[in-house]
Every structure is written in C-alpha cells, then in structure tokens.
Amino acid sequence: MFLFQFVNYYSSCFYIAFFKGKVVGYPGEPVYWLGKYRNEEGDLGGFGGLPSRPPWGPALSALGPAHGWVCPLAKRGLVCPWSAAQPLARDKSESLEYNFVECDWCGDPHHWLFGFVTLFVASFPLAPLLALLNNLFELRVDAWKITTQFRRIVPEKAQDIGAWQPILQGVAILAVTTNAMIIAFTSDMIPRLVYYWSFSVYPYGERSNNTMEGYINHTFSVFNIQDFSPQSRPINTPYWFHNITSCRYRDFRNPPGHPKQYEHNIYYWHVIAAKLAFIIVLEHIVYFTKFVLSYMIPDVPAAVKEQIKREKYLTQVILHEANLKLATSHTSAIASRTEVETRLDLHL
C-alpha cells in the first residue's frame, strides 16, 4: 500500500525534477515519443512547485470534530456535510439521525508531509521548519480532539511502529539521493563551478584569472536555421525568420561547421562528470554523518536502561522471596509431620 501511495503522491514530482525538459534534443532534431509526440520542454526556472500543506492546516483540522455536532442534525438521505461520500444504508426502523460511527468516516485523509519535506527539500529548504511548526501545533490539536471529541481509543500493546520503521528509514535514505540529484541536475551550481575553475582560464579559456565573465554566452549553443528538418521546422514562420541565419538555444553542443556539429561538446562531459562526483561525495558525507549520529545516540536512553535493570532486579527479588516462602512452608510442614510422628512413637 505504501509503494502504491508513493507512486501516486511523488511520481509527478520525480517527473518534474528529473525528466521534464531533460531529453528534448536540439532545434534541428527534437525528441519524439512513438515517432510523433514531441517531448515536453521545461522552463529555465529549474525544479519548483513543491506541493506543501498550508500552515493553517492544523487550524482547519481543529474544526474537524465539529462534524460530531453537525452530523446528528442531518436527515437520512443527505450527504454528511463534512464528507463527499454517501452515508451507509440505513434501515427504516432506525433513527433518522447520523450516529457517531458513521460520521467518523468524515475525517480528512492522511497528509504525506514527511515525504515532501525529505525527498524534495532542496527545492524548498524552508519546508522542514514549516513542517516542524505544523507538527508542534497539530500535536496539541490532535491530542485535544482525541481526548474530548472522539470516542475513547482501545489501547493495544506494540513493541514499535511496525512496518513504518523501515519505510521511514528507506525514505530518509532515498531523500539523500534525490536531493543530491536535484541540486546537481536542476540547478546551475555545477555548471557555474566547472566554468569558473576550468573553462574560464587556460587551456579552455583565454583569461588568466578565474572569473564568471562570459558564462551566460558560454551556456548557449548556436544553431543554423537552414538545418531545420521538415518535421521540426516551424509551420508559421515570422518575418524575421528569413532575415537571420542562426539562433541560440540553451545546451552544450558544438556549433554548425564543426566536425561533430550539434553533438555534445567537452564542456558538457565535464559538467556530467562533476555532477556525478558531486552526488557520490555528498551521499557519502551525509550517510557517514547519519551513521555516526546513529551510533552516538543510543536507541534506548540511559534512564530507561536503568529502569529496565531495576525492574529485572525487583522481579528477581520477588521470585527469590516466593521460592524462599515456598521452601519455608514445605520445611515447616515436614517438621510438623515429623514432630507428630515422634509423639505417636513415644506414646506407643
């Protein structure tokens, strides 16, 4: 069920982050799916539009228990005012009012906040802080609702949170990779660093000092308008289309007339290598830090360990005293019986 919900909630985010606008080709030879569907191109703004829960979500959720007061006023056949679902079928002999069990179906669905603020936190670094504030407030709101507005919960023993433990750990580990890839492939940080340290100076550049001058011009490739294929050529061409010979597009390809024209140039492969190196290094640093912190922070606090030892000691004392009382009672019975037998023997 979690894997199913994972695809439903996060597939669009993964598509926007890693696929939209990434495999589009170049103006003379765009990429077509199934031979006729042109691949969607993204804007230059990078990855954005992260779904997030509004900060007033807990305040609205606090109104949720109000359905316990409103639903009983609704008549049979009407939809519960707090839900889009139709009510359960009711027998004619029953009361016309909604009972609490039926209205309990009117609650809001669970919000997958943890995945959004971990898997895509690089797109909105303020999301964890907002999520923390949301959870701190909603914790008290939910406690108030459970203790005052809802039916008493049946307590059950549980050693841990069950299957959610490996799920949360897996999402946290996957979040390191996704955020590293978001930083590497959806931002200009790596191309800027590669240009600053390698392509702005000798042997690729003509300047003596590292600089960002000329970076924007360096990121746009040249395309000859005459090289448009019939399939990709614009249908309605503006007047200026026939007065110019070339245009610029955002990519790292060789210019027309080059022996390998329109193929990826050396700068592109330098950027790809730098992005992969950045992902590997960042992953190892974060994972190493995570494992060090996990080792330093014990799973069971020292106070809890002392309490467990104390309970074990008290259990051993109780068992020892019980065994001692049992042995004493047996010894007393044997002594009493021996005394009776001795008196009988003396009497005889």
Automatic annotation (TrEMBL):
Q: Which domain of life is it from?
A: Eukaryota
Q: Write out the annotated subcellular location.
A: Membrane
- Domain Anoctamin transmembrane spans what residues? 1-43, 114-311
Could you tell me the membrane topology recorded for this protein? Answer: Multi-pass membrane protein
Task: Give UniProt keywords alphabetically.
Answer: Membrane, Transmembrane, Transmembrane helix
Q: What is its main location?
A: membrane
Cellular component terms (Gene Ontology): plasma membrane
TM spans (from-to)? 112-133, 167-187, 266-288
> Does this UniProt record's set of keywords contain Transmembrane?
yes
Which Gene Ontology terms describe the biological processes this protein takes part in? calcium activated phosphatidylcholine scrambling; calcium activated phosphatidylserine scrambling
GO terms, molecular function: chloride channel activity
Per the UniProt entry, the signal peptide is none
Record's family? Belongs to the anoctamin family.
Q: Which PANTHER family does this chain map to? A: ANOCTAMIN, ANOCTAMIN-6
Q: What is this protein called?
A: Anoctamin
From the broadest rank down, the organism's phylogenetic lineage runs:
Eukaryota, Metazoa, Chordata, Craniata, Vertebrata
